[in-house]
Write a structure and sequence with these properties.
Blueprint lengths: L1 H6 L5 H14 L5 H6 L6 H9 L7 H10 L5 H10 L12 H11 L9 H11 L5 H7 L5 H14 L5 H4 L8 H14 L5 H7 L5 H14 L5 H7 L5 H14 L5 H5 L8 H12 L5 H14 L6 H13 L2 H12 L4 H11 L7 H11 L11 H7 L1
Length: 385
């Protein structure tokens, strides 16, 4: 430590930078005072590095020093001081609202300065203080797309529905990256008022905007989005089709069962998403198409574990219907599917390590629990009467 303290007074600014770097890496309480002292260095590089890693959430003096740097004339230093308050720089960050509000309020003026606006938005979003919501909406008028995207992203993190209306116009932004971020933010806000605008975004020329709009609609869960999402199952981009399927599962409307079932085609990636969605819906009408898909996929599988088969088998299990158990038995034996055996074992509390033969033995002993009674016919029926 004495050597590092001497290095902080060296004529060579590179030595002073290295000293601050080493002190920050040590990070003990004894290093805080010399790092705060380095904030008075005549080199902006030294001051920036000194403030960047100050333990502002665990040391009152460090916090006070960083708050002071937020008013520095140099925008570079103000950005670094704001970054010091980012929760991402602290492992297992925990702080009460009253602890967060003071630095958030001190960072707010940085939104007024074009040179510090983007950095301020990033940190304010991470802090999650609602005092930043309206100032961030105001900052959306910035003429730089990166800054607009940063502000929209921060608003989404705040999850304050009061500013939903301010985000909606960003779905019409000339930059696709901003439209995409706006869709994500609206999903995080989960405000029903955003549904019509997000439905419109399902027709955006950029596939990733359409995809993220579909994700947002699933998060919101508004049934008005069901028909547009069903239409999106025919989107030319696979990512959009898969995301639309998952969102339909989240919304949980039975209108989606048949359209999702049509996506269950072997070797099609969206089949996995469709299977998961059908499992979420839990509708017995999905048992037959899921079973057919499992049988076809099992026959075409070359070797090894199949995530697609596992998802479809899990979907059957989630339906929680006796016919689903029958279907899993069929696929586990006739289709010789390891994935179906594993899922069936978890569902009924049995182990089928011996393969299809174990399933057959278990089924002979337990089928009466899952198969409906067969009505008596002919002579047997007459005797009962």
């Amino acid at each position: 430590m004495p050597a590092l303290a001497r290095a902080l007074k060296a004529d060579d600014p590179l030595l002073r930078v290295n000293a601050v770097y080493v002190l920050s890496g040590i990070g003990t309480a004894a290093t805080v005072a010399p790092r705060i002292q380095a904030l008075s260095d005549n080199s902006a590089r030294v001051r920036a590095l000194a403030v960047r890693w100050l333990p502002v959430w665990s040391d009152d003096k460090a916090r006070s020093a960083a708050l002071g740097v937020l008013k520095d004339a140099d925008p570079y230093l103000r950005r670094e001081a704001a970054g010091a308050f980012s929760p991402r720089r602290v492992d297992n960050f925990k702080a009460a609202n009253w602890e967060i509000n003071k630095p958030a309020e001190a960072i707010l003026p940085l939104l007024e300065d074009p040179d510090t606006r983007e950095a301020a938005a990033d940190v304010l979003g991470d802090l999650g203080s609602n005092c930043a919501a309206r100032p961030l909406v105001k900052a959306l008028a910035d003429d730089r797309s990166l800054v607009r995207a940063a502000c929209v992203e921060a608003i989404g993190k705040l999850r304050d529905k009061q500013v939903t209306a301010g985000v909606l116009p960003m779905l019409q932004d000339p930059e696709a990256s901003v439209r995409r971020t706006a869709a994500t933010a609206l999903g995080e806000l989960a405000d029903l008022r955003a549904t019509p605008a997000l439905v419109g975004a399902l027709s955006d020329p950029k596939y990733y905007v359409r995809r993220d709009a579909a994700v947002a609609l699933g998060q919101i869960g508004d049934r008005r989005a069901v028909e547009p999402l069903i239409k999106a199952l025919d989107d030319p981009e696979e990512h959009v089709r898969s995301t639309a399927a998952l969102s339909l599962g989240q919304i949980g409307d039975p209108r989606a069962v048949e359209p999702l079932s049509r996506l269950l085609k072997p070797k099609h990636r969206q089949a996995r998403s469709a299977a998961r969605a059908l499992g979420q819906l839990g509708d017995p009408r999905a048992i037959e198409p899921l079973t057919r898909y499992l049988m076809e996929e099992s026959k075409s599988k070359i070797a090894g574990f199949s995530d697609a088969l596992a998802d479809a088998a899990e979907a059957l299990a989630r339906i929680r219907h006796p016919d689903a158990v029958v279907a899993l038995v069929q696929v586990a034996t006739d289709g010789n599917s390891f994935e179906a055996r594993r899922t069936l074992g978890k569902l009924v509390g049995a182990s089928f390590g011996g393969g299809a033969k174990d399933v057959e033995s278990w089924w002979r002993a337990n089928r009466v629990l899952y198969l409906p009674d067969v009505p008596a016919q002919g002579k047997e029926a007459e005797e009962k009467h």
